[in-house]
Amino acid sequence: MTALLLRGSALRGGRVLLRDLDLAVAAGQWTCLLGPSGVGKTTILRLCAGLANGVEWRGRLVTPGPGQVALMAQDDLLLPWLSARDNVALGARLRGVPPDLAQADRLLARVGLAGRAGHKPAALSGGERQRVALARTLMEDRPVILLDEPFSALDAGTRARMQDLAAELLARRTVLMVTHDPAEAARLGEAIHILTGAGAERIVPPAGPIPRAVEDPGLLRVQAALLARLRAGVPCAA
Amino acid sequence: MRGVIGGGASAAMALVLWAGLVRLFDLPRFILPGPGAVAAALWRDRLLLADHAATTLTEIGAGLVIGTLLGALLALVLALLPGLARGLHPVLIVSQTVPVFALAPILTLWLGYGMAAKIVMAVLIIFFPVSTGFLHGLRRTEPGWLALARVMGGGRWRILWHLRVPAALPDLAGGLRLAATYAPIGAVIGEWVGGSRGLGYLMLMANGRARTDLLFAALLVLVALTLVLRAAADRLADRLTRHATGS
Ligand SMILES: Nc1ncnc2c1ncn2[C@@H]1O[C@H](COP(=O)(O)OP(=O)(O)O)[C@@H](O)[C@H]1O
Ligand SMILES: [Mg+2]
Question: Which site among A132, B19, B114, B206 is 20 to 30 Å from B74 CA-CA?
């Protein structure tokens, strides 16, 4: 079943941003989207989240309705005046329902921040802030999750742990994750697309359930192929 | 601490210069009284000064509270209704070019010689810096936060209350700082134009009776009052800014 479908072109101010895209995201699995900077990956996520902001879509666009999506942006977007706990519980407050602070604390503990729930973002490191943002995304508990380079600010060890955790907690959800890291895509992608100026290209993912072991030979082969593909680049169609 | 020492040093230098000028040119007391004469007046007429200062302070206080509330309210309404804001924008620009001081005689005519006219003067002066400062802050909320809030399903009012208002508090504080500096001027000009109470009235009366020492004493009290207000506004502004940045 297709959860997200983008078939067409995106324009910003009359200029083509994404040309002849054909991207279908299957429900209930992790889809990874790779591509060079500025190619339009974040724009795709925003379109899926219903945030048009100056982008015009020409073609077919199937997105889940409001209330179905959680978005974790490239920046952590934590509110500086709220504690980590209150940041995680922000969604409930904005919807006017009582926030489940115990659940917020549980999720913070899951991302390894048990002792930090009362800290303000300014007192946290960049990696810790991104983990709070991940907890906030999990707290939303939505069927479709959009992740924009969620683990890029983390050190290698923490990144691997967060990948494991996210894969476990978001199993069987529809996840569309943007990443620039071929290793991450090969580890977590049940479908993998490389985005170029000429559209999205499908890459066959490694076999096996996610999160895959980093030393898995199939994973290493796909990782190498992805890297080679990204290095070669594609002449921009525009 | 160094600021206090520096301030004390420059105040001492100004006093010495002042006393020197009076001596050097042998100025009569009704032209420029020396620091000693002003200090004497400050002490002798302390009850009178305190009485009139209380009136002026009440006017300023009421003006600050009402002006801040009205200014913040207008900013909130305009932040929620951008269409209305666009329509009102020229009106606001034009109204800001009207020198509020020129309105003092009219306000006295309409509201009489009591406190009301002075409070309205202070309100008019405070209202604009507060509303424009706050509105500016409400309008430039980090777009990423707003996008996140929308995806979370937040309503306009709740996004305003939980996100835009806390983020705009430093800008509101900036408006308050300006207001605290200008509010005393509004009240005193109101007292000049018509009234029987307040430091402005006392200065005018002292001037008429060639009590220049009392005039200077009243001026000193007014300066001290303004400095205290300004310091309070600065502290509040610091607290609001620290809150908004989480530091
Ligand atoms: N708010 C904006 N206004 C104008 N151009 C933008 C804006 N945001 C992004 N762009 C441009 O749109 C293109 C795609 O951006 P983006 O989707 O963020 O790329 P990616 O996430 O793949 O790095 C880039 O060329 C970028 O410069
Ligand atoms: Mg991006």
Answer: B114
**Whether A58 and A92 share a structural domain:** no
- Could you check whether the bond before residue A211 is cis, i.e. omega within 30 degrees of 0? yes
Nearest to A150 by CA among A120, A172, A170: A170
For the stretch B203-220, pLDDT in tens is: 999 988 988 899 999 999
Look up the ipTM and state it.
0.90
β-pairing, A199-203 vs A15-26, is: unpaired
- Residue A52 sits in the same domain as residue A108: no
Range of the domain at A111: 79-141
Taking domain B33-245, whether its CATH number is 1.10.940.10 is answered by no
High-pLDDT (> 90) share of chain A, %? 62
CATH of the domain at A62: 3.40.50.300
pLDDT in tens, A190-228: 999 999 877 888 999 999 898 999 889 999 999 999 999
Q: Is A194 in the pocket of ligand 1 (CB under 6 A)?
A: no
Instruction: Please check whether residues A226 and A126 belong to one and the same domain.
Output: no
Ligand nearest to the CA of residue A149, numbered in listed order: 2
Angle, helices B115-139/B46-80, rounded to nearest 10 degrees = 40
Q: How far apart are the C-alpha atoms of A155 and B73, rounded to whole Å?
A: 46
C-beta of A152 in contact with ligand 1 (< 6 A): no
Interacting residues of B54 by C-beta distance below 8 A, sequence separation 6+: none
Both A47 and A7 in one domain: the answer is yes
Tokens 């400095």, located at residue: B227
pLDDT tens, residue by residue, A1-36: 888 999 989 899 888 888 888 999 999 999 999 998
Nearest protein Cα to ligand 1, atom 4:
A12
- pTM above 0.90? no
Instruction: State how far the Cα of B150 lies from the Cα of A77, in Å rounded to an integer.
Output: 13
